[in-house]
Design a protein that fits this description.
Helix content is 16%, strand content 30%. The chain is α/β, with parallel strands linked by helices and 751 residues long.
Length: 751
């Protein structure tokens, strides 16, 4: 009827209902130019359609498909190379069988459509494929002009293989159930889809896939939408293609390395994935949207986007991921949004890794929970965040996030480039080391109300490790933060700003810097400001000197690095406080003196050092202070010689040998006479106590007083003579210190 008497069939074709067909329907290599429909029919033999050309074919049922008692049943289709001008419909049909063809040397399938051409749609609504073979459908390199719809209760217990297939429309898997025995649910490797891929829920049907979706090098011109589905990967190593997976132990639910998706890839809320999702090297032009999704692949890679290219954003708001999110080398042409995400149980040290990635937008980790986020979790659940060498065109916002990696690196931003602000504030908590070494931040570093701990406060574990042997909570070695650094944090651990550069420092001197655990060597900045950005900050030299003494890692040992003190002095001087600048430097030298060992242990020497440097020289920064002891010494010499009772011991001799006292010629005074001219009319220089004191104390001055007058031991001037000699020596010492102080001041002025 279909071939020999085709001229008797109308243009509407043939429909056979409620029949039981016991023979073989063999249309191989035949041409049928009208529609064929079998409704509620049961076949005893598979359909033989290889190489045939048929207008359209439908094998459908009207009652729900059941393994026993189905209204429509078919023991297989052998349709390799067939051509359909319109649709192939297999809805509400139970398909069984396990057949071999020349298209495969080792595998069996229930439905063979290899290299078939369907110029319409392939519909299987509510269909069940229950095969004892390897695959439910094998349709390698087939061509379907329209959609393939395996929907609304479609169920298959074997692999659906569409390698190299070309679909003009979409692949719709809404409400399907795929439970293959060999681990591969659908294989779309190297297929081309003109439309989209849908794996969504429908009323009464939630999609369930207990196997792997393989889309290696698949090209999808539309989008991929997974909604309300449950995907569970096969056990590691089951159903693995040697040419697809490098790691035989990987447990993957979605394998789409090198795939190209022109639209977005969306996994919406209520979707759960047990196993890994691999998009390594894939291109997703429309963005990756997985808000509210659960992906669990504990202690392995849960989401692999290594070297992927995402055309817009990656949105993973409120995701729950057990395993590592790997973005190494990825390029994201938009923001990376992980707000309120929960990331735990990584494959190694990091829950989120984005080494050398490029993000043309913000990285949003606000309110995320990373690593061991709950006190009840074991240390094995710890894990950090790594963006080593990444380039971020926006800000890095981790406000309110918690990153737990005790004894290890919690936030690794080594060599990262951030065009915006770096926000580790507003309730941010890190347990572990936050590392910004060699990072470049164009905006501000904001740490206000953040908590930085090198280990968990609640338990005190772990001990220092090789990664963090200094028990550091924060490191920014050689970092550049151009917008300024705002602290206002709570720190339990060492802080290291060695060789870092920033525009300003906003801090609380007595709270933000760990005592003797702050490393500031080479740390340069331009000014101080308030945390609120509306004040001037702490500029007082006394407060800054206290800050530097508090921070100095040298503690009570040897003197620390002068660099931080000199930087503070430059900052004060650069803003017009030269006196405060010098006071800072003097405070450093004072601190250095207090930490000396050896001779400085003796109180007398420490006291003398303090008198000389603190009171009289200001460590070379106040050389004019040396004039004070010089003046006092002059007063001490001249004072006793002012009254006659004190200067009567002074004697001078003229060229003829006549002896004089300050009152006149000695012989006349002894004779009871009162000389009218005490200087003998210029024979000797007149005595002046003040000039004598200056001449005695100041060595570089010669007023001819000391050479003309001297205390006489015969007149009881022995004590005065001794005092004058002592004053001379003291004057030499103080004057030398004065000259050295002037030289130091001149040298600093020149430099």
């Amino acid at each position: 009827m279909l071939v020999d008497r085709a001229d008797e069939v109308s243009q509407f074709g043939v429909r056979i209902s409620n029949a039981r067909i016991t023979g073989s329907l063999d249309l191989a290599a035949c041409r049928v130019g009208f529609p064929i429909q079998f409704q509620d029919c049961r076949f005893a033999e598979p359909l033989m359609l290889e190489g045939s050309s048929i207008h359209s074919l439908a094998v459908v049922g009207t009652s729900p498909r059941l393994k026993a008692g189905a209204s429509s049943s078919l023991p297989g289709i052998l349709g390799n190379g067939m051509r359909l001008d319109r649709d192939l419909v297999l809805s509400q049909t139970l398909i069984t069988g396990a057949h071999r063809t020349t298209s495969s040397l080792s595998r069996t399938a229930a439905v063979w459509l290899t290299e078939a051409s369907i110029h319409g749609r392939l519909l299987a609504v509510g269909t069940a494929i229950d095969t004892a073979g390897d695959r439910s459908i094998q349709a390698d390199r087939c061509q379907v002009t329209g959609d393939i719809r395996l929907v609304q209760g479609f169920r298959a217990n074997g692999e659906i293989r569409l390698i190299g297939a070309q679909l003009g429309g979409s692949l719709d898997l809404a409400g399907c159930e795929l439970v293959p025995r060999n681990g591969r649910a659908i294989d779309l490797a190297e297929a081309t889809l003109g439309g989209s891929v849908f794996l969504t829920d429908t009323p009464g049907h939630k999609p369930v896939v207990h196997g792997r979706l393989e889309m290696g090098r698949t090209s999808v011109n539309g989008r991929v939408l997974i909604r309300g589905a449950r995907l569970e990967a096969p056990e590691a190593g089951i159903g693995r293609h040697l040419y697809n997976v490098k790691d035989p132990a990987a447990r993957l639910a979605i394998l789409a390395q090198g795939a190209t998706i022109r639209g977005e890839l969306t996994m919406s809320e209520a979707t759960s994935v047990v196993g890994g999702v691999t998009l390594a090297g894939a291109t997703v032009d429309g963005g990756l949207l997985i808000d509210g999704t659960s992906v669990r692949n504990e202690h392995d890679v849960a989401l692999d986007l290594t070297h992927a290219r995402i055309g817009t954003k990656v949105s993973a708001v409120e995701v729950d991921v057990h395993g590592t999110v790997d973005l190494d080398g990825a390029e994201i042409a938009g923001p990376l949004d992980l707000r309120a995400a929960v990331l735990s149980r990584p494959a190694d040290r990091y829950c989120l890794s984005a080494v050398r990635s490029v993000v043309l937008g913000d990285v949003r980790l606000r309110d995320a929970r990373v690593g061991g986020t709950y006190p009840s979790e074991s240390p094995g659940t710890s894990g950090g965040v790594r963006f080593r060498g990444a380039e971020l065109s926006g800000m890095f916002d981790a406000g309110g996030a918690q990153v737990m990696s005790p004894g290890d690196t919690s936030v690794n931003l080594h060599d990262v480039k951030i065009a915006g602000n770096l926000r580790l504030c507003a309730g941010f908590r890190s347990v572990g080391l936050v590392a910004l070494n060699r990072a470049s931040v164009e905006g501000r570093l904001q740490c206000d109300e953040g908590s930085f701990e090198w280990r968990r406060r609640e338990t005190g574990d772990p001990r220092p490790t090789r990664v963090n042997d200094r028990e550091s909570a924060f490191e920014a070695i050689s970092a550049t933060i151009r917008g300024g650094t705002g602290l206002g944090w709570h720190v339990d651990g060492a802080v290291d700003f060695t060789d870092a550069r920033t525009s300003y420092v906003a801090d609380r001197i007595d709270q933000d810097w760990p005592r003797h655990r702050s490393y500031l060597s080479g740390f340069t900045y331009e000014r101080y400001t308030a945390l609120s950005m509306h004040g001037s900050g702490e500029w007082g030299w006394k407060a800054r000197a206290r800050w530097l003494r508090l921070c100095d890692p040298a503690g009570s040992g040897d003197a620390g690095d002068p660099g931080p003190w000199e930087q503070a002095a430059r900052t004060l001087k650069g803003h017009g406080d030269s006196a405060g600048s010098e006071e800072i430097l003097m405070a450093y030298l004072r601190t250095k003196r207090q930490r000396r060992v050896g001779w400085a242990r003796f109180r007398v020497m420490r006291g003398l050092d303090r008198v000389i440097n603190d009171w009289f020289l200001g460590y070379g920064y106040r050389p004019l202070r040396a004039l004070i002891p010089l003046g006092l010494l002059i007063l001490a010499v001249a004072g006793p010689l002012l009254p006659t009772s004190g200067n009567h011991v002074m004697r001078a001799t003229d060229p003829s040998g006549v002896v004089y006292t300050p009152q006149g010629e000695l012989s006349q005074i002894e004779a009871g006479k009162h000389p009218q001219d005490p200087c003998g009319r210029g024979k000797v220089r007149c005595f002046n106590p003040w000039l004598y004191g200056i001449d005695t104390v100041v060595p570089i001055v010669d007023l001819k007083q000391r050479t003309a007058w001297a205390p006489s031991t015969d007149a009881g001037g022995g004590p005065m003579l001794a005092w004058v000699n002592v004053a001379t020596l003291a004057g030499w010492a103080i004057s030398s210190l004065f000259v050295v102080g002037l030289a130091r001041a001149g040298s600093r002025a020149l430099t």
